[in-house]
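We emphasize that the prediction below concerns an isolated chain of 345 residues; any contacts that depend on oligomerization or on bound cofactors are therefore not represented. The input was used exactly as deposited, without trimming of termini.
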Amino acid sequence: MKRLLVHLCTFAAFLGLTFTVAHAQARPEPAAPRGNWFVALEPMFVQTEPRTGGVVNLRFDDSRTAGMDMTLRGANTVESEAHAPRLTTGWRWNMPSGLSLGAQGRFFDLKNSTTGPARAVPGTVTLTNFATTSETSDLTLYSGDFEAVAGYTRWGFTLEGTAGHRVARFEANGEVEAFGVFTSGNYVELQFSNGSRFAGDGNVLGYTLAYRAKRWPVSGFVGRRTATLDGKSDSFGRAVGAVASSPAAPLVGAATVRRNGTTATDMIMGETRYGVQADLGGSGTRFRSFARLSYERIEWTLDGPPTGGAGFGGTINELTTNGFASAGLGGVKLDGWSLSLGVAF
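Result of the prediction step, given as a token string:
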């Protein structure tokens, strides 16, 4: 609810500024200059939903209690809020016929880390114990687009298409930990983790359809971008730890399964955005600024060969432990707001 209220207040403030400035400048404008450079800084505020492609299952059972004491499942998806910058810069050549041509570069970089309590399997009951459990999720995204742009304006509508090349990197890691005295006389220190990453490049295509109000320098727009990248992926599943219960010898183990440098891996990307833009300053002036508020949904999905995993398990005195960290190829979903502030000259 707090996140929603922040977004609504931001949106209301932006609309107020837009219409105040637009009203002050609502007048016929001279013909647009034939060419201009532009640059825009675009902070994004999004909800992230990363996927490592695998999952961790961890169970503890003390024979002195009735039923399974704890059943955890995680290290795949931990939703959290994040913010990231995006920079767009380029050049446009505007023709009197309504046709425009140009080139642009778009650069996006996001890093986010979240830590919280490990999650029990829904429907299970966690019995009394004294261990500390946690789950950590790390996400890294980067993309750089280099595009040719062509657009056409008629009757207030502008249709713009882009085609170019994208370079991207993706990495998602998850970890579930349990440590401390689990039940009387039983000490655990376990770590299960998995992750996947990708680096590659390929073609990116997109379009934007916008409509500009007749007497107000305000536009509404909707856009879509898609890309399929070729590259190499890495993935892993890891289990390491110890369980001790005196006077028996402790259970100790460590294992990692990896698949590194896998080719024949595709990263499938889709991006949808819609919003409003205000152009501040007449098109006949030397310098113009613009502000754009948009809602975006972004999804990246890895497609490639599967990977195995690593496990840890055994019984020592009264405590039985079973855990497994599977590996795979993940992805991410983002949705939220972006506010672009730019200048053309």
